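Hi V.,

You were right to ask for the full record rather than a summary. Here it is.
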Amino acid sequence: MSDVIVLPPSKIVWKLQVKHSGLCLNVMDMSQDDGHYVCQWPFGNEPNALWLFNARADGYFQIVAYHSQKCLDVAGADFYPTGFGSLDDGAQIVQATPRDVDSQLWRTVATGDDANSIYVVNKHSGKALDVREASTAAGALVCQYQLHGSDNQRWLNVEVRDLNMG
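Predicted structure:
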């Protein structure tokens, strides 16, 4: 594992494709609702599979769903008085209204596989985006899990230039 931080530009639209299945990070059902689950799904240029990386001065990002303008967050954030998400392995990743909380901040770390292969690590928990149980099924949920370097935690950040969503 490399300590090199990969910093995608913040004004570019990205898809995040997980290495083990080739499927992409996606807000289920194109939902606009807070707390709606994030899964892996075949990429079809739908806006719920497109992401913006909004850079912060500390090197972290809010990863924002293009269709809803909501941030990736760790489930449990609304149940803690401090506003922070769960620290548990397996905690579900959801979208939520942007707030100034560490459970919505992520950093990208190069995997060393190639220039676009990254781990996406949560600031609050220190855990990585992970496709639950390394499932290859479309619709498999995305959670956070201790970084172990398996392919279900390796994401390709691919710039999307064609935003023609007809």
